[in-house]
Design a protein that fits this description.
Layout: H1 4-17, E1 19-25, E2 30-34, E3 38-42, E4 47-48, H2 50-54, H3 59-65, E5 68-75, E6 82-84, H4 87-97
Antiparallel strand pairs: 1-2, 1-5, 2-3, 3-4, 5-6
Length: 98
């Protein structure tokens, strides 16, 4: 289970890598995005208000409660994203690259 401090650490590491992460969820029409800030988008990457997408859930509650379909990480100087199919694989990769 991710805590709020885990989310802050993930966000900090992504910022230091100059990376953006898109969290896609199974059978859910919104995604969680960590770029310059943490926000919600629809699957066409149009920003939506957080409460419309996730209600009153915090980012760690969203990641703990919804099933991950995939996580796409875009890094500067790379044309193709890194794709992960589990939160564990993403966190393992993040601990290695940062």
């Amino acid at each position: 289970m991710l805590t709020e401090s885990d989310i802050i650490e993930i966000f900090r590491k992504l910022k230091s890598l100059r990376a953006r992460a898109y969290f896609f969820f199974k059978d859910f029409k919104y995604i969680l995005v960590m770029s310059g800030l943490i926000h919600a988008c629809d699957k066409s990457l149009q920003a939506v208000e957080w409460p419309k997408a996730f209600g009153s859930k915090t980012p760690n509650e969203v990641l703990n409660s919804l099933l991950i379909e995939k996580i796409e990480v875009y890094m500067r100087k790379r044309s193709e994203p890194q794709v992960f199919y589990s939160l564990k694989d993403f966190l393992d990769w993040l601990s290695i690259v940062s």
